[in-house]
Write a structure and sequence with these properties.
2 copies of one chain form a homodimer. Chain A is α+β, with helices and mostly antiparallel strands. The first copy, chain A, has 8 helices and 11 strands. In chain A, the strands form 3 sheets. The first copy, chain A, has a 4-stranded antiparallel sheet. Chain A has a 4-stranded antiparallel sheet with strand order 2-7-4-5. In chain A, helix 6 crosses helix 7. Chain B binds a DNA duplex (30 and 30 nucleotides) through helix 7.
Chain lengths: 229, 229
DNA sequence: CGCTGCTTTGATTCGTATCAATAGCAGTGG
DNA sequence: CCACTGCTATTGATACGAATCAAAGCAGCG
């Protein structure tokens, strides 16, 4: 579709509303940081003095219960925003699922900068509205869909979001998940066993291939969509 | 706590960031409209040419599946905002659960007005961020909690949100739900029977009273919080 | 009084969780 | 190169919680 140069710019979406001068100022406020897979950036319930922009990698937003149950409430991709502007404490943990690189800002500095840059704030508003729509759509999945429907819906959404990534516009049916079975289960509100069984069944039914642990190939997209309900 | 005059002002939160002059302009853009209980303001998937501010009553945001299953993904109270600024189509239906009154704006006019009023836009951003946090918290409930935990969590949250309403600051343990059992079930991702059974059990356990169909009295808040997990 | 719609209660089924064991793979050191 | 270890995933047997199916109770209302 488009060439990669354009694509990279598009990915740095939050900054895209700024002119070079403003970008420079914002650049001064932030600092790049690498996060190793598995490392937690923000803890649920803690004061979160930072916000950040994801440059590379994938992170998860997790809400936990006292007894260890976990629900992943959001997945964060490059160009997405992390943290809670204008907020006190983080309502969830943010953990890297792959090695990642983020651009971190002191929250107060960022809030101030945002307050004086309406364009940036509008961009943030749009982004937040999109996230809210996505979250609500996910609520339907969690509350009302069966295990098979959940898994199918999940794979279809991942195929969308992950294929956008590489700006190859390539084969949408084949992709590599940045996480394992347990994480899929935590996203879908299922157990790891049920998740595994559903995938196995889909392979048996010829709807997908599982070349390796993390690779998914959707071989019959129409069928997958039917299953997703 | 505070007297009602203060309270009413506080409730009109979105407009609160504007000066009288701006308020007048915004007032010109909007028009008041009454909505009867059960009437749907916006349909899922339809173009939504309006946004609105709730003045009175309670509305629900609903996502439906092709086979009739429904999940309520949000409940809207007075001073809350409805619709999708900067969006095309509504990702969910908006239906009045009680007789309601809203202040409706043409979306384009509102977007334009918002774009030139950063304070309003920031208010909207904060509101949206809060909604997002609430939605994500709800995802944990839908994905990981048992029926008993769901019902208890729900009652506790309703006791919070409904008691704020009347600005009486009154008895937080007693309140009247603006909806019936089926709706509670649609909020919690349960069936009406399971919901009913959980309530009956809680009454038997002395955690709450059910004076009438829609009245709830939490008699043992601590126990309720324990059940909520 | 007898509708009508909502809620409660009961009996049974079904889907997913749970418990338990095995299998596959990746890394390590002999 | 292969045995050993640890981790993740798969598969199987069983239990349990919530859905479903069915019927009865209860309010509001003409």
């Amino acid at each position: 579709m488009t060439d990669c140069a354009t694509c990279i710019v598009r990915n740095r979406a939050i900054c895209a509303s700024l002119n070079p001068e403003e970008l420079a100022i914002l650049g001064q406020l932030g600092r790049r940081q690498r996060v190793k897979a598995g490392h937690t950036l923000l803890w649920e319930g803690d004061d979160a003095p930072v916000v950040a922009n994801v440059l590379e990698g994938v992170l998860k937003l997790v809400v936990g219960a006292s007894d260890g149950r976990e629900q992943i409430v959001g997945i964060v991709f490059p160009s997405d925003f992390i943290g809670r502007p204008f907020g006190k404490e983080s309502p969830y943990s943010v953990t890297a699922m792959t090695d990642a690189e983020v651009c971190i800002f002191n929250r107060n500095s960022f809030d101030e900068f945002a307050s004086s840059h309406p364009d940036l704030q509008q961009k943030l508003l749009r982004r937040t509205l999109d996230e809210l729509d996505r979250a609500r759509h996910w609520m339907m999945l969690l509350g009302r869909k069966s295990a098979a429907e959940k898994v199918a819906s999940f794979l279809l959404e991942m195929s969308e979001r992950l294929s956008g990534q590489g700006c190859d516009g390539g084969v949408r049916g084949a992709f590599e998940l940045p996480f394992g079975r347990q994480q899929i289960a935590d996203i879908l509100g299922l157990t790891i066993e049920t998740t595994s069984r559903q995938l196995t069944k889909m392979r048996a039914d010829g709807v997908l291939d599982l070349p390796s642990r993390r690779e998914i190939v959707i071989t019959d997209r129409a069928a997958m969509e039917t299953i997703a309900g």
